[in-house]
Amino acid sequence: MTTGVSGPVDPALLRRDQRERRSRIVRAALRSLANSDYERVKVSDVARDAGVALGTLYRYFTSKEHLFAAVFLEWQEGLKRKLAKPAPAGDSERERVRDVLHRTLRAFQLQPQFYRVLVVLQTTGDPYAAEIFQSLDKIFAEIVSPAFEGPFDEDRKAVFHVLQAVLDQGLRSWIMGRLAIGDVYARVDEAIRLIYDHPPRVS
């Protein structure tokens, strides 16, 4: 659902009170999604819980997809902080990468509705939601990259993108009921084994 307005207020240009209001809306939507599925969450309920008028909400977010893109970004930033403490476990790069991906899988396993939002955003027609979606890969790379030894060079970026694709496909199959969650973990482990048993230049 879009509102026909020309565009939302640029977050970088908001006054302090406006930033706080926008954050309050995002937090209210985050709470709603934590307790329900994306399809069942009503934007009007989010506005009510945030203590703002529906029209006010749409001054900050052009659509439900735009709002929940911001919500997913907030959730992913929280996941990044959570996975940084403790640092990835393991004596080798292979073990640390496995630890980070397993902990990421666990987060989606506990709250699958957040992955469903990610699937929605992959095909969004809202340019503002799409802009936020484009930033998510960078944040996930920041989550995984501490597990690597040395710089996040082209070889490690290639490893990251392969494992990200395996993770994404596994989670998508899981939420569609085509794959058990244990099989998603197994596919990630198998991809890691194949990469690190036959590395190009990755340690």
Automatic annotation (TrEMBL):
Residues 19-79 form the HTH tetR-type domain. InterPro entries: Homeodomain-like_sf, HTH-type_TetR-like_transc_reg, HTH_TetR, KstR_C. Residues 42-61 bind DNA. One of its GO terms (molecular function) is transcription cis-regulatory region binding. Keywords: DNA-binding, Transcription, Transcription regulation. It comes from Thermocatellispora tengchongensis. The keyword DNA-binding applies. This is AcrR family transcriptional regulator. It comes from the Bacteria. It holds the Pfam family TetR_C_20.
